[in-house]
Amino acid sequence: MFWGCRTWQGLGYGCQIYGGTMNAGDYIEILETPLKDTLDFYDLRPDDFVFQQSCDSKHTAKATKRYLQDRKYTVLPWPARSPDRKPIEHVWKYLKAQIDLRARRPSSVHKLWDAVLEEWEKIPQDYIQTLYEPLTRRVRAVLRAKAGHTKY
Question: Does the reported pTM lie above 0.70?
């Protein structure tokens, strides 16, 4: 598994998740390292951004909520059964497509990790910014639909 984040200014640092599972403690460690490093790199302070994540149990755990509150991060409220509206999902799809387009597919976990990091660094910033443009419309549509289905 791979964890990564993105901002309007650019992609953030990513990290590999060994073993394929995470708990709240693992997630907090990610927030404390690659997320914090990303915020520092782009000189972002808590008032500069709204943090978006899913309603996965590690994201909604008491320890995670406390961590985010202690750092004064504004977290975008997200309905538990909301259809997936996170722009990062488009980034994952793009990343997977770029790896699939390679002439030689990775033949080991280590080569796959190298490919992920290489392709992650090449994701165009203008592509990332296009993912933000419809976000306001999408969030409004989800709110109007009371977290039900929308055209998005």
Answer: yes
54/74 Cα distance (integer angstroms): 14
What is the spatial distance between Cα 149 and Cα 128, in angstroms, rounded to a whole number?
24
To the nearest whole number, what is the mean pLDDT of the chain? 87
Q: Is residue 82 scored above 70 in pLDDT?
A: no
* Cα separation, 33 vs 37, whole angstroms: 6
Please provide the size of the chain in residues.
152
The kind and range of the H/E element at 63 are helix 62-70
**From the CB of residue 39, how many other CB atoms can be counted at a distance below 10 Å?**
22
Q: Which residue(s) pair with 47 in the sheet?
A: none
As a whole number of angstroms, the longest Cα–Cα distance in the chain is 46
In contact, 120 and 128? CB cutoff 8 Å: no
Domain architecture of the chain: domains with CATH? 2-144 (3.30.420.10)
% pLDDT > 90, the chain:
51
Compute the C-alpha angle 47/131/95, nearest 5°: 110
In angstroms, the CA 89 to CA 107 distance is 25
Q: What is the pLDDT of residue 87?
A: 76
- Integer Cα distance of 15 and 1 in angstroms: 9
